[in-house]
Amino acid sequence: MTRSALIVAHGSPSDPDPQETALKDLAARVGALLPGWRIGGATLAKEGAFDAAVADLGTPWVYPYFMARGYFTKKVLAERADPAGLRVLEPFGTEPALVTSAAHALQRELDAKGWQPADTALLVAAHGSAVSRTSAESARDFAAALKAEMGFAEARAGYVEEPPFLNESARGLGQAICLPQFALNAGHMLEDVPQALAEAGFAGPVLPAFIDWPETPELIAQSLETQADSG
Length: 231
Hints:
The chain has helices spanning 16-32, 49-57, 71-81, 98-113, 134-150, 166-169, 187-200, 216-229, and strands spanning 3-9, 37-43, 61-64, 121-126, 154-159, 176-180. By secondary structure, it is α/β, with parallel strands linked by helices. Helix 1 packs across helix 8 and helix 4 crosses helix 5 (134-150).
């Protein structure tokens, strides 16, 4: 039996095509790891993309490529999926293996610099929200889990849209690595995060958005396969 899944992200309403292309590329990379599956990608920002992908895939599972459970995963996606009888899975940011994957990526950066975690601070840059607590809580939990896993000297979270703002959290950290908790290379990741870090005088390495991590397709593929096996 052929299974199908649709990876869905928010995208960029002002310029939807680049993110739509990025999601389709991510879907292709996930699909290459899942023989017998059909994997699609679509953003909510690209008009008609979600409905067209569902029509093509039949009755796919909907995989939210979001960093936290929030308005878009609980309400917007549910309202799109429920009438079609589609199952909405847990979002990417809640994957149990994500902390381990991030720890491996951070360790590679530490090794490249010749740094030890005990002498290094971790800064998690995240979206935040003026109306929901889930984004900020997710980033704080992620930072705390990575500190516990790796033994960083300090772990902070800073936000684009709520206090503590990123340009404040990034100050005075000394030797530090920034892990942006962003799924895509959209406006916040490309503009707001670099600007805030520059304002703070942050000079440490900055990891890429998750869509550029080599581990991301495997994380999604493993999640889909595990849920398929569990029924």
